[in-house]
Amino acid sequence: MKNIRIGHPLIQLQSVDSTNTYAAQLIRNSEVTEGTVILTVYQSMGKGHGGNRWISEAGRNLLFSVILRPDFILAERQFYLSMCVSSAIQEFVMPVGGPVRIKWPNDILLQGKKVAGMLIENTVLNLNLHTSVIGIGLNLNQKLFPPELPNPTSLALVAGREFNASESLNLLLRSLEFHINRLYEERYAEIKTCYLNNLYRLNEWADYTDSTGAFRGRIVDIADSGMLIVKKENGTERQYGFKEIVFN
Ligand code: BTN
Fold first, then answer.
1. pTM of the predicted structure, to 2 decimals
2. Is the peptide bond before 99 cis (omega within 30 degrees of 0)?
């Protein structure tokens, strides 16, 4: 069982296409240390979840990627990594002013608006994870957002003050270290409980749409695979992958 430090080394860039792409190149071209962080002031081609772009004002937010080698984790359990990262961000944001909720699969909502997102890109060897690039975009001090972004906010908008970027990064990296070490200690049940405790709409009746149309349902659990388990009003239960269900 290994214990990991995150942010040693810390590679700081002024500008890059995407810290995730840069991290993947580092992994391919060198013997990179596990826990290396690539931080940038600006991304020209920031990547978001599901093929979207991540657009972020230069110098106002946290944009970084963490390199891991979680080779003891079965690929089929890779969502546990995502749960750890969501919980780490949730815990970091919480003191700013609640409620802070994780919207499945991994958007972080502060007072109902998106304050952070993550893009985790893994490689798999045999049945296990091999390398993992954890990209995090967190809105720190940005106050104006392009109108096409759905429902954004930042820590500064909610708290009414500016945040120091390096202090914030440090706190967030410590939170990530805590939650990722919980994974490295294989405490899977705790990881899931922590994620579910902060999951948006858990056990609440709400409106959704799937391929069969609109319905009322209740999120009851998350499968080990990361699929969302929803109970419909008519009593049937279904599991959904990303993009198979819309939250209305
Ligand atoms: C999402 O769509 O919610 C995920 C956004 C992830 C953005 C971060 S910013 C740093 C890292 N580099 C990227 O290109 N994307 C991630």
1. 0.96
2. yes
